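User: I'm writing a tutorial on reading structure tokens. Could you give me a worked example: one chain, its sequence, then its tokens, then a sentence or two explaining what the tokens reveal?
Assistant: Sure. Here is the example chain.
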Amino acid sequence: MSDELQELFDNNARWAEAINQEDPTFFAKLAKQQMPEYLWIGCSDARVPANEIVGLLPGDIFVHRNVANVVLHTDMNCLSVIQYAVDVLKVKHILVTGHYGCGGVRAAMQNSQFGLIDGWLRSIRDLAYEQRDHLALFSCEEERVDRLCELNVIQQVANVSHTTIVQNAWHRGQSLAVHGCIYGIKDGRWKSLDVTVSGLDQLPPQYRLRPIGND
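And here are its predicted structure tokens:
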């Protein structure tokens, strides 16, 4: 196994040496504590590496990735990451980042079966159906896929903001904002979708939850 991975081990050695040459204390400081200001919720796509896209080093960004950057209220994995990032690490920004041409989003727009992933993508399929009239305004499939990629990010920003984890942080007066962003694989540019939620007053009344004990 090690022979098959030797190129990766060699790459790591060169990378670590380059970092050490630039800052000999970097890894010593990193080992003591992580203090990221950002939580990145992105897609598992191998072409969308969080740190590299925004030019941050290890320790600067806490990362959760899954297929099509989905945030479900039943996903304990994702919710655990959000809870640790918000309550323990005290991140100030949650960056929900999709990408154009997302294969998961494209699959959710088709009528083929792909296996276990079909259940995971169900919420995006629902979103595509809800937005079918809007998506029909776009002239080709690629444009429809890319628009649904944007709409999916906007929906996931809402889903993050609706969690009790994020709302309790706001109740405590903690500085926390949830941003919607998207990445273009074709040009390498990461951009804002101009969707940011930074307080309870920005949520529809139906989703605003009082803190426990304030009933």
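What the tokens reveal: The longest strand covers residues 190-197. The chain has ten helices and five strands.
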